[in-house]
Amino acid sequence: MEIRIGILNAPRELSFESDQPASEVSGAISGAISSGNPVLELTDNRGGQYLVPVASIAYVQLGAEETRRVGFVA
Q1: What is the pLDDT of residue 57?
Q2: What pLDDT is stored for residue 1 in this prediction?
Q3: Residue 6, SS3 per DSSP
Q4: Which end of the chain is less congested by CB atoms within 10 angstroms, N or C?
Q5: How many CA atoms lie within 13 A of 60 on its CB side?
Q6: Interatomic CA distance for residues 14 and 68, integer angstroms
Q7: Following DSSP, what letter does each residue of 12-71 receive, concatenated?
Q8: Largest CA distance in the chain
């Protein structure tokens, strides 16, 4: 699943792929915002860790979970 996070006063967005389900990522984002945590921690599918200041988040876009097709599509 692709995750895109817009950061206030930054010209580019943070974009990465994650193996976590959308509900888990959404819960982590909502939990960080509602609990007052200063930093949101997310992990990509290669094990990289992203720390985003919660006060600087402009928007979060969660892509659809996509399964890869095997073979040819006619």
Answers
A1: 94
A2: 87
A3: strand
A4: C
A5: 20
A6: 24
A7: S-EEEE--S-HHHHHHHHHHHHHHT-SEEEEE-TTS-EEEEEGGGEEEEEEPPP-PPP-S
A8: 51
Cβ–Cβ < 8 Å for 58, 14: no
Strand, helix or coil at 8?
A: coil
How many Å apart are CA 38 and CA 8, to the nearest integer?
A: 15
What is the per-residue pLDDT across 4-56, written as a single tens digit (0 to 9) for each? 999 999 999 999 999 888 899 999 999 998 998 899 999 999 999 999 999 99
Task: Report residue 52 as tokens.
Answer: 């985003």
Q: Which two tokens stand for residue 11?
A: 């010209």
Closest CA to 55 of 4, 2, 10: 10
